[in-house]
Amino acid sequence: MQDSQNGLAGWEGKGIVSALSAQPKSRRIVVKFGSGILTKPNGFGLDDEQFERLTYALSGLRNAGHEVVVVSSGAVAAGGMAFGMPQRPEDTATLQACAAVGQTRLMQRYEQYLGRHGLLVAQLLLTNEDFHQPTRRKHLQNTLERLLSFKNVVPIINENDSVATEELKVGDNDRLSAGVAQVVNAGLLILLTSVDGLLDSDGSLISELTEADHALRHVRAEKGAHSVGGMAGKIEAARVAGEAGIEVVIANGRRPEQLVELAAGAGRGTRLRIAMPVSLQ
Questions:
Q1: Where are the alpha helices (DSSP H) in 169-280?
Q2: Residues 66-86 pLDDT 10s
Q3: How many CB atoms lie within 10 A of CB 198?
Q4: What is the dihedral of CA 241, 46, 20, 9, to 10 degrees?
Q5: Given the DSSP bridges, would you call strands 247-252 and 269-272 parallel, antiparallel or unpaired?
Q6: DSSP-derived secondary structure for 146-177
Q7: Residue 16 in domain
Q8: Which domain holds residue 174?
Q9: What is the pLDDT of residues 100-116, one digit of tens each?
Q10: Which CATH number is 34's domain given?
Q11: Could you tell me if residue 195 is left (phi over 0), alpha (psi between -120 and 50 degrees) or otherwise beta?
Q12: Cα 235 to Cα 229: distance, rounded to the nearest angstrom
């Protein structure tokens, strides 16, 4: 494994330093990492090189003065790796067992790689009740506000998959990230996935959308091997976030060096400002 400096040599030439110097006022940003960008392209396990790149990019956001909350998938994949499973299981009990074992491995990666940049990790595992029960929602909000007041802390949030039953589940981590963005009153939600953003019928990137119905016409049915929500889930997350006036960007998590640019309103991705209700049926 390359160390943090050698493994990321040359990133300055890709615009991080210049983007930092051109930043507008700091923002509160929620960044969601999907399983597809945290796992190895050809296997059911965590990709250490990706963790190195992603955490370096997160440190760039913090150095630019932004407050950052991460919503991270990957616990089931990490647990499956520990159990030697070749693919994602389908039954609930095995999924929850994988999540229970994998969550510790997932947080270990974040602690290891963010620690190289002087950042501490705070873990929060949530269920649906944390958003919809008023007292619990207020406690969640207070905890996150206090954590963000420490300039060297990055909250890492995941659904509590090891215990969540159907009535307690948020759904998928796209929806979870939109809920978190609302709770912390974020200015921007960045959904990192395995593609550059939403593509039109010709395969060209759509840079900006304001209508969910129009966005859904471009959604394709396929999902990655470790994905839950797919692109339709991201459009729904954008609608939920949009109801609170939060801008959403869908971008490629295999290009994490552009996180600072995305925060500044640039970079390559699809920007969504959606506030109108829409049915995904």
A1: 173-183, 212-216, 230-242, 259-263
A2: 999 999 999 988 998 889 888
A3: 26
A4: -160
A5: antiparallel
A6: HHHHSTTEEEEEEE-TTT--TTT---SHHHHH
A7: no
A8: 24-272
A9: 999 999 999 999 999 99
A10: 3.40.1160.10
A11: beta
A12: 10
